[in-house]
Design brief:
Elements lengths: L1 E9 L5 H9 L4 E4 L6 E9 L2 E7 L11 H11 L5 E7 L3 H13 L4 E6 L1 H6 L6 H8 L3 E3 L8 H9 L15 H11 L8 H7 L1
Helix pairs in contact: 7-8
Length: 202
């Protein structure tokens, strides 16, 4: 049987826990991350002869090491053996999630964007062109509603092929002065992480 390990990442209150329940049902394991008081939730389910282990990470606003929650998510992304991540975003405040999504893309981690609260967005006159967003980002973009299970089947399909969701060489281009600074710092970066990703965070 094939196995996948996928992280659920997003800001607080974007529906990560609801999505986890929609994916695996009520049988989840809640525990503290080793050495901390921060809770993480895990669950698994078999889809088409593939066992998928899901990890619901703490709600964060960016990939950094400023808070305990951010440190835990960073460790889960870069120190654990994972196959990819699903970034859950609130359609009514999409721009807040895009920065974190771009960080994950810069780190060349396979990722899928799941758009939650689509109905709430439509009530406010917000309509996301998912196909256009998909072309811009180069990744799968799936509208979801975990409570009604809207989009969950399609999301599972994308998750099962998440290893093909990486975008090697993805980069956000900045002005010339910033790019020169990034290049200088990149030349001094050591370790397994993409040098440009580390340089931008510094």
């Amino acid at each position: 049987m094939k196995k996948l390990k996928v992280l659920l990442i997003g800001q607080p209150n974007v529906g990560k826990s609801s999505l986890l329940n929609a994916l695996v049902g009520p049988k989840v394991l809640v525990s503290n991350y080793p050495g901390t008081t921060v809770e993480i939730t895990k669950g698994d389910r078999i889809f088409k002869n593939t066992k998928v282990d899901f990890v619901d990470t703490p709600g964060i606003y960016s990939i950094s090491d400023r808070s305990e929650e951010e440190k835990i998510t960073e460790k889960a992304l870069f120190e654990q053996k994972i196959d990819g991540a699903v970034v859950i975003a609130d359609v009514t405040s999409l721009e807040r999630s895009l920065y974190m999504l771009l960080q994950i893309l810069e780190a060349q981690i396979p990722v899928i964007l799941a758009l939650n609260f689509v109905e709430d967005g439509e009530k406010k006159g917000i309509k996301i062109d998912c196909e256009k967003l998909k072309k811009i980002l180069g990744i799968s973009v799936v509208p979801i509603n975990p409570l009604t299970k809207r989009g969950v089947t399609r999301l599972v399909k994308e998750i099962l092929s998440i290893k093909q969701a990486a975008r090697p060489g993805f980069r956000t281009n900045y002005d010339d002065d910033i790019e020169k600074a990034i290049d200088r710092v990149s030349g001094r970066v050591k370790g397994k992480l993409p040098k440009r990703f580390v340089a931008i965070r510094i």
